[in-house]
Amino acid sequence: MQKVPEVQTYSRRTGLQLGGGITELLQLMEDLIGDLTSVPQPIEIKLFSDDEAVLRALAPRVADTISKVRGVVEVKNGIVPAGDALNVEVDRVKVALEGMDPEAVTKALDDFWPGT
């Protein structure tokens, strides 16, 4: 991890003991209870970038790599398509000529979209 230039920081917890500082005890207790009740806790890997294309390319690769670790039972790559969307860009000048502002357009669309 330290050799990857894009990785700024990382942390890990290894083992089954309740080591760590006082501030970590709550999370550690949740982990221990999960282990004892056979409810495994998730592994969460967060990727950050200003470039969405980079994230979309890296997420499946990370998911594939982590899925090969013994004991990992379910992997989600974190890419969740939002489904249908409507993006409206308001031309403030044209809207003003109609005696409206962007908030009025938003209100009109909110009423129109569900059929109110």
Care to describe what's here?
With 116 residues, the chain is mostly helical. It contains four helices and no strands. The chain has helices at 25-36, 52-67, 92-97, 102-112. The protein is elongated and about 65 Å long. The relative contact order is 0.06.
What is the beta-strand fraction?
under 5%
Outline type: elongated
Low-confidence stretches: none
Order of helices and strands: HHHH
- Arithmetic mean pLDDT: 78
Number of strands: 0
Using brief descriptors, characterize the structure shown.
mainly alpha, 116 residues, elongated
Question: What's this, in brief?
Answer:
The protein contains four helices and no strands.
Give the SSE layout:
Layout: H1 25-36, H2 52-67, H3 92-97, H4 102-112
